[in-house]
Amino acid sequence: MQHYTAPIDDMMFQLSAFGYDEVSKLEPFEAFDLETARMFLEQTGTLASEVLLPSNRDGDKEGTQWDPQTGEVTIASGYEAGHKALAENGYYGLTADMEHGGGGAPITLGTLSKEMLMSGNKSLSMCPGLTNGLIEALEAFGSDEQKEMYLPKLASGEWTGTMCLTEPHSGTDLGLLSTTAEEHGDHYKLSGTKIWITWGEHGLSENIIHLVLARLPGAPAGIKGISTFIVPKFLPDGSRNGIACTGLEHKMGIHGSPTCVMSLEGAEGWLVGEPNKGMRTMFIMMNAARLFTGLEGVSLGEIAYQAALSFAKERRQSRAMARSKREEGQAADTILVHPDVRRMLLDVKSTTHALRGLSIFISANIDLSTHHPDEAVRQDADDLVALMIPIMKAYGTERGFKNVSDAMQVCGGMGYTTDGEIEQYLRDLRIAMIYEGTNHIQALDLVGRKLALHDGRLYRVFGKRVRDAIAAAQGNEATAPFAAKLGEALRDLDQVTMALGKRAAGDPEVMGASASTYLTAFGLVVCGFSLLTQANHAVSSGTDERAKLGLTRHFFNRVLPEIEGHFAILASPHESITQFDDADF
Amino acid sequence: MQHYTAPIDDMMFQLSAFGYDEVSKLEPFEAFDLETARMFLEQTGTLASEVLLPSNRDGDKEGTQWDPQTGEVTIASGYEAGHKALAENGYYGLTADMEHGGGGAPITLGTLSKEMLMSGNKSLSMCPGLTNGLIEALEAFGSDEQKEMYLPKLASGEWTGTMCLTEPHSGTDLGLLSTTAEEHGDHYKLSGTKIWITWGEHGLSENIIHLVLARLPGAPAGIKGISTFIVPKFLPDGSRNGIACTGLEHKMGIHGSPTCVMSLEGAEGWLVGEPNKGMRTMFIMMNAARLFTGLEGVSLGEIAYQAALSFAKERRQSRAMARSKREEGQAADTILVHPDVRRMLLDVKSTTHALRGLSIFISANIDLSTHHPDEAVRQDADDLVALMIPIMKAYGTERGFKNVSDAMQVCGGMGYTTDGEIEQYLRDLRIAMIYEGTNHIQALDLVGRKLALHDGRLYRVFGKRVRDAIAAAQGNEATAPFAAKLGEALRDLDQVTMALGKRAAGDPEVMGASASTYLTAFGLVVCGFSLLTQANHAVSSGTDERAKLGLTRHFFNRVLPEIEGHFAILASPHESITQFDDADF
């Protein structure tokens, strides 16, 4: 039996710590003050634990079924109730413009709600997740007609959305994609095969709107010749369009989410945005998708932690090492007393809190970058988002996977059985390191693109924020030791960043060989920044002080030092990788 | 479709590197020279890839079924053929004494054969694995009558064996176990419930011989009051004994292996060894079981590596970063050219080779400790085995799990599907960090027991071996840089070991908080020792030189430096763990 307690208090704490008051002062968000936010989060937490979670295990066990005769896909029982509750309570259009039926909520609250919904049922919550992304893309690049036609139905959850990028020979390398689109009156006819299409076919909604990447005749090769099209399952006249599910993937986890092969045979589609500029549309969807993929590590890390903690408080094995901690009259102590169990729980909890903070930091900056009246503020916010997104995606999922595995370890054999809760979380989470751009693609985005942008401006903006947090922490006895450690880590990261840049000038393969390790090191610094910000807030507000300082202390003492290993690897020659003889693999 | 190529050449190389010639000179093993060893390994490799592997996926999909009416357990189709082949080819009694029908092979060859059998089908190979352990326990502590009665049937695979330790409230803490044994004429009557009994019930063999831990009336509390008993499924007169399977666990992986709840209701049992000295018997079985559990990381790391490499050679995505490495006339290069793919493959391959070497090093020392005429040699060998077993078990499974996950990452989305091969390996392997004593229990065994034994003698014996390998490497230009790096790591480990010992004197919880991290650091040094030994052998024998030196270089440049992170954690205060307030978890 799976359980989940929404971490509302920590979310409220972190909203304050990461400047939600600034977000709620923005003109479109004036209705979303802290008090409203709490009510909303509580409602979402209840939905996650009482409506979504009960079908989570069913989804895993029942999976999805594809009917080869009709192409229809059957979803797990119980998911329909979850979908309806999500639709009726506005989660499909939560952060969408109110002009077209959306809820108009800040992304910041959208992110926190997503964390809870994914904790409750990751597979099902991917359906509104994809739909949210489609809405954002249409808001940015759709024509007025398209907006009026699609947005209200998507925001209400009557229709749902997908992203159709990947093809059998074109995954990481989108430039290879070969689906074609030919002009046909006011629309286009698309043909090709798409794979890995999440929620590509199902019966939960009246219609499914696919955003499809394809090539126009004579389009340039590579990613500069990609256009995006709206391809609905049902055409405006109610007839079936030429797009159909022709198979499902069988996966290690997220069994409840249908992962479809979609075949397009002259499917009618409508161009979104300009021809050959499809990557712009996709990047709108991908930025949000990468943030939320990183958040999967927080979501499943959180619920796995809760399961492990609950087990650790009940299970009795062996005596405490310190005699004073032994419980009299018992043959064994609860395992929460054992230092190694505490170590694992604290590793998980501290990094989960750190990454939750990062998700809020990014989201608040998305809101600021979109709506703040001051251009300088918008630009800083935009820089921070661009730099942090690949770290959130890759480090969030890498650490999250380790965290769920550690939570399983706390539970011993029970954690490995399907009677326990955690083995599903481990299976469900593993894909997050792969999809929405593998973690290495994120690392290349960080190193090869984001660090270079505007002559290193993004890194400088981030560095300033870290130094601000350090300065704020230095004046207080409780936080000063953390400030010193983060300062040292930042200086080391500065040096490693410069040293790598120099080495890369001489050998283009340096970045490929080192980017993933570099991102992990950067991720640890970012987690340190996140926790220091939280510790500063705990001290200045007098809220949750003992717990936050305890977690932060643990992170700086026993987690952040991992970074020494990553730095040592980055300082070593990389030629053992790039010059290894192919025949010797 | 799963594939496996037995790594015979590397095994032969490593047998020479780790002194198999000494083993084959021992009196009982004179028939097992290197040439015979190769024939045997080749035969085993064929069995693993052609007989065991074909049913590996079936076992995963079909699982095991328990019939509540009869208590019988149905095994996957295809397993019977595998079991028969294993039995007919002598794998159930491979290393057992020839006096009682065993094959008399050195443990060293047993270990290499186990690696391959587990690569082929981990679930099925656990059946001979447990039986091997039971044979060893009976050889050591069984009466002559017991030996004659059980050993020949176990060695032939007509009967199979189990270890019945765990009970619902007694897992890690065996002292809590409560199964009772009461004297009843020449035998005992046992009652209680055992869980997690691997291959506890099945129809593959004519009889199942359970080795059961239980308490005699009035036995001392804790582990000093445990005795071991033989409890057969069928009694000598052919009637059914009072032990039955009353349920199966449902697990994340190893679906093909029946994990049974066994209920004993007045089951007839025969004491093995002395009353209340059952832990001695168990340690015989556990030592071997821990070595082979660590080996799971090598087995599945190896086959996952093969799958990932094969994918990386076929899959084309994106262009090589170095222009000179781009393949003309192709839209994209094979992903083997991408530095991050190479990094992951080399991380996996170098640590897999290192841990294979460790398994051979341990096994050869087991053979020496048992059969060498010189007592000083036997003692050194015994010390090395005792020190290395917890490292092999814990670091082998920890690194193996990371390796299989990295192999999955190489394959991207394909690695996550059940069409790929790797997702099963990841699920099958995760339990290895938990069973046979959780990895933290291994760490406590290392730190709290093995380091302290004989005033630190084990560590000194190991240190001498490492320094010998370093000395041998210093004279050669190719290996001298590795020697310098390993020397530095060993000096650091020496210091950390002493520093931890000092801190532990003041606070008993230091060891608990640090043991797992310490074991990981120690594991890296051991891997360095293993690869340096292999590099030395490559140079001195002129065999496989480029490949081994390349792997060793990669390990010392880009894997061993991880140790800096572990050392930095160990140097930090541990009180953030032990003094964290319980209410704040």
Helix content estimate of chain A: 55-70%
* Assembly category: homodimer
Based on CA inertia axes, which overall geometry of chain A fits? globular
The number of strands of chain A is 9
Key structural traits:
homodimer, 585 residues, alpha+beta, Butyryl-Coa Dehydrogenase, subunit A, domain 1, Butyryl-CoA Dehydrogenase, subunit A, domain 2, two-stranded antiparallel ribbon
Q: What does this molecule look like?
A:
Two copies of one chain form a homodimer. Chain A is α+β, with helices and mostly antiparallel strands. Among the domains of chain A are: 8-63 and 77-155, Acyl-CoA dehydrogenase/oxidase, N-terminal domain (Butyryl-Coa Dehydrogenase, subunit A, domain 1, Orthogonal Bundle), CATH 1.10.540.10; 159-277, Beta Barrel (Butyryl-CoA Dehydrogenase, subunit A, domain 2), CATH 2.40.110.20; 438-585. Chain A has 19 helices and nine strands. The first copy, chain A, has helices at residues 8-17, 20-25, 34-52, 56-62, 79-88, 107-141, 144-155, 278-314, 339-371, 375-411, 413-416, 422-430, 439-450, 457-474, 480-506, 509-541, 545-559, 563-571, 575-578; strands spanning 65-66, 73-74, 159-164, 180-184, 187-198, 207-214, 227-232, 243-248, 259-272. In chain A, the strands form two sheets. In chain A, strands 3, 4, 5, 6, 7, 8 and 9 form a seven-stranded mixed beta sheet that branches. In chain A, helix 6 (107-141) runs antiparallel to helix 8 and helix 10 packs across helix 12. The longest helix of chain A has 37 residues, at 278-314. The first copy, chain A, is globular and about 80 Å long. The two termini of chain A are 45 Å apart. The model of chain A has no long low-confidence stretch (mean pLDDT 97). The interface between A and B is large, with 93 and 92 residues.
